[in-house]
Amino acid sequence: MAPPYRPRQRWREGAMCRNLHVMRPEILFPLFKETTTLPGLGPRLAALVEKVAGPRVGDILFLKPTSVVDRSSRPTIEAAREGEIATIKATVEAHIEPPRNRFIPYKVRLSDETGFLHLVYFKPRIPYLQKILPEGEIRIVSGKVERFGSEKQITHPDLVMTEAEAADMVGLETVYPLTQGLSLKVIRKAIKAAMKDVPDLPEWHDGAVRHDRHWPGWKSALHSLHFPETLAETDPAHPARQRLAFDELFARQLALQLVAFRRRRKSAKPLRGNGELVEKVLACAPFKPTSAQTRSFEEISRDLESGRRMMRLLHGDVGAGKTFVAALAAARAKEAGAQTAIMAPTEILARQLARTISAFLGPAGITVDALTGRDKGKKRQEILDRLKTGEVDVICGTHALFQEGVEFDQLGLVVIDEQHRFGVSDRLKLSSKGQRPELLVMTATPIPRTLALSVYGHMDMSRLDEKPEGRKPPDTRTISMDRMDSVINAVGRAIERKERVYWVCPLVEESDVSELSAAEDRFAQLSEIYGGNRVGLVHGRMSAQEKDEAAVRFRNGDIDILVATTVIEVGIDAPDATIMIIEHAERFGLAQLHQLRGRVGRSDKASTCLLLYQGPLGEIARKRLDIMKQTDDGFVIAEEDWKLRGAGDPLGVRQSGLPDYRLVDIEAHIDLIPLANEAARKAVYEDPDFKGDHAEARRILLYLFEQDEGIRLIESG
Ligand code: ADP
Ligand code: MG
Questions:
Q1: How far is it, in rounded angstroms, from Cα 702 to Cα 295?
Q2: Can you give the CATH number for the domain in which 104 is found?
Q3: First-last CA distance in the chain
Q4: Which pLDDT belongs to residue 519?
Q5: Pfam families from the xrefs (predicted)?
Q6: pLDDT(413) > 50
Q7: What value, to the nearest 5°, has the Cα angle with vertex 360 and ends 355 and 366?
Q8: Is the same domain home to 56 and 99?
Q9: Which protein residue has the closest C-alpha to ligand 1 atom 19?
Q10: Residue 711: what pLDDT?
């Protein structure tokens, strides 16, 4: 299944684009013209085209066909098969006007030497039909053949042509995404017109890469995308399609590599410490670090000391202990006299992070505070002052941290937790803040390695591939929702044993209203059975403060059951919780189930995860639940998820921060990602200043795919 189509709106983004416009290579101008400059596209149609493609000519050209229609079949009427698309040559015999009855359609009777065929029209414009289908003349008609009683017919044929017109008709016709009021005819005509203006762009790929794979030039590949002559050309594995996908992947990787290369090249003040604070933090920690944590921290320390700015990804499954590594890094920064900013995706997580980090660092005398959108007025000002004077060593926050007016005394390190929730531009904004801080990104995003390159291809990577000792993976079971009563009884027994229970309510597609009401109903029911003071509720519509309060009460054990919508997915941390119940588990993707399950099994206590499902289960849903029972390894789950996903789960990858590719068909082209990564790395290392042979062509490529960051870097020199 194709991913949900998302029209592009980047053009509206404002200032940056306007700047880029100034420098845009002239050769690309035709592609950046408004679509209204194309013949036949007035403002009304252009607005519709914009919905599916975008406002520029280039957007139409990058509109990937969703399928093709094969009109090469030219049977006689007798041989035309029901249900198939046929293109038939026949003589117009008669127009049959229906009696004044709206329910009987208008028909045009055609014949050839083998039989008769009716063209059927509902509510037609009769003069128009008489003009295009004059009696006694030969016409070529094309459409899906149907049977009506003993007769063959085509309802609203796709094409009616004279023989002359049919002479230059192609056998294969591409089909595009449409919207109300926009016909294929309009889109095709626009593409045809746009294609006429396509410039011959210089080649940006190495000859070797191209020749080995028989890739055509860019323009000819584009032509083949829209005007295929063989079915092979419509296969994403065809060299022309591969080339276009590779262009897009390469542009993206080139921009990433440029950012990384330039960042690394600019020197940073080495953050060197004497080890005193780190020692203290380690001594006071309630556990010994895992060897993966130690190794990752060493890698980070080396980066910090190196005098080259760090750009490192700490990749580790949920529960692997990333927060502690971040705390150690902050302690090291403090040893070197620098402040650390830690960014979380939500207020609730930012506050939780501040608490956790403060527990690790407090004993070493390092001060930790939080700043979120909730802090206003005087409180906010106080925090800002303390930041500016350097009284606060570590600040945890949300986007609010990088707004105007937030100043640091000596910002040395920026840590971003669960970064896929932030855009790349956020990352840039924040690293331009202050004194060129070192950057550490932490993520548990369970995406396959290859795909990860697409997002993090430019960063150094530390992997937390080991969970803290003594962890037992949750005992995972599947239970039919029909047995709700016994589940509720089991929960009763568990809370008598002083266990704590998460209860996640169903995800209801596109309707957070019903999701909410399901959670509220369950909350009401459980409160009635076990008493309102033992059950809490969190959902997305609550204020951050309310959510926070519920989370803290659960963490502290004031309540035993926390009913939640998927807001807990991103990580309320209550290490003592041991039971996770997920209703309608069949509606979740694997990645999400894994994230949710990761909320339990965070201590040495045995834990349980109950996946409640509503039967009958489809094949994919059953496989997903089976995988959950078989493994607790996020990376294995990610690979399996990827294999199954074609059949359904749009969640995992969408959330992983994968760019909105236009010409890349991610499933078919996944193997091109490492190749593009390697080619881009090579390109940048061999010619970081964009002065060599391919430089001009690659500059054009970056503009073509609007890789703003990359462009900004090469243009600013
Ligand atoms: P994540 O990688 O998902 O962010 P956390 O940092 O939240 O994981 O850690 C999960 C839990 O494991 C926390 O309660 C944390 O205190 C604990 N933890 C972290 N490192 C260790 C360790 N080396 N030994 C035991 N427990 C640890
Ligand atoms: Mg975490």
A1: 37
A2: 2.40.50.140
A3: 43
A4: 85
A5: DEAD, Helicase_C, RecG_dom3_C, RecG_wedge
A6: yes
A7: 90
A8: no
A9: 321
A10: 81
